[in-house]
Amino acid sequence: MEELEQGLLTQPWAWLQLAENSLLAKAYITKQGYALLVSDLQQVWHEQVDTNIVSQRAKELNKRLTAPPAAFLSHLDNLLCPLLKDITYSSEATFSCDRVAGALILRMRSELSGFPFHWNFHCALASPSLVSQHLIRPLMSMSLALQCQVRELATLLHMKDLEIQDYQESGATLSRDRLRTEPFEENSFLEQFMVEKLPEACSVGDGRPFVMNLQSLYTAVTKQGVQVRQKHQGTGDPLASGSASPQGANNHLLNHPEQPVSSAPSLSEPEREPMGTSGPMRRPQLSKTKKKKQPRGLFS
User: Fold this and answer.
1) Residue 260 CB partners (closer than 8 Å, separation 6+)
2) Angle, to 10 degrees, between the axis of helix 2-9 and the axis of helix 208-235?
3) For the chain, what percentages of helix, strand and coil (3-state, to nearest 5) are there?
4) What distance lies between CA 122 and its chain's CA centroid?
5) Which residues on neighbouring strands pair with residue 26, listed in sequence order?
6) Which residues contact 197 (CB under 8 A, 6 or more apart)?
7) Measured in whole angstroms, how far is the alpha carbon of residue 182 from the centre of its chain?
8) Phi, psi (deg, nearest 5) at residue 117
9) Helices within the chain (DSSP H only)
10) Residues 69, 54: contact at Cβ < 8 Å?
11) Closest by alpha carbon to 284, among 147, 190, 161?
12) What is the spatial distance between Cα 35 and Cα 28, in angstroms, rounded to a whole number?
């Protein structure tokens, strides 16, 4: 069942709107079984089954249908996975859920070969280790990666300010005054963000903003973690039992945080100070040797 566990980990979360409420869900289905994770932002439920359970449950719920487990799994995959990958997808199936004694039963109704097809996902409360693996550790890695990206952007803004200053000292002027900007001050920017933008940025709601905006980064972080664990397992490193280093994921995600991680080697980065949350960043120093040049771009 390792394939199911690993496959589920690297799947993005989806927003599933039901008549009763909305849920976050992710699923991974193969010919050998399926794994499903569901959350209402209060609790997390999980189910993982093999072909024996699929065959038994299919007989209980669909007495008029006879097919191998692989056929039922294929039908579940065709109905569920497109819905989880595209929030605007109009599924042929209808869903409802019931909560009984700490468990969540997600019911699905559709048709198969012209006959009614019913399926119930029996999800039990997820273990703390599973919640950590799918939520806590990936979210921590995502936070560190985004912080690292912000600091890289701040460094780039400082360099741009120094470049503009050099142009101005060489006699260049703006052709359009409305494009004028003030030099970037990191501390002032962070203070203003905390006061004006933080309340809106922290609005989790029903989880939809997380699903709509951050799933590429989520899958990049989880795939990076799987790759690191596989590398440790191949070398017999005891760290294989733990999660991937968040710093390793950060380095890979600096330039393209919304692109999934591939097996290609990560690009090397320029040297910079270690990440930190206190103290202003040291600004790059501009060489005192100036070259006279013709103004370009916005400057005339």
Assistant:
1) 216, 219, 220, 223
2) 130
3) 45, 20, 35
4) 26
5) 37
6) none
7) 34
8) -125, 125
9) 2-9, 51-61, 69-85, 128-131, 137-169, 186-196, 198-201, 208-235, 246-253
10) yes
11) 161
12) 5
Cα 90 from Cα 288, distance rounded (Å): 62
Do 57 and 134 meet the contact criterion of CB atoms below 8 Å apart? no
- Token code pair at residue 2: 């390792």
pLDDT digit string (tens) for the chain, length 300 residues? 688 999 999 999 998 888 778 899 999 999 999 999 999 999 999 999 999 999 999 999 998 888 899 999 999 998 888 888 776 666 778 888 898 888 999 999 998 888 899 999 999 999 999 999 999 999 999 999 999 999 999 999 999 999 999 998 998 888 888 888 889 999 999 898 899 888 888 888 888 889 888 899 999 999 988 888 888 777 765 544 444 444 444 444 434 444 433 333 333 343 434 443 334 444 444 444 444 444 444 344
Tokens read off for 274: 């270690």
Q: Per the structure block, which two tokens stand in for 15?
A: 């927003």
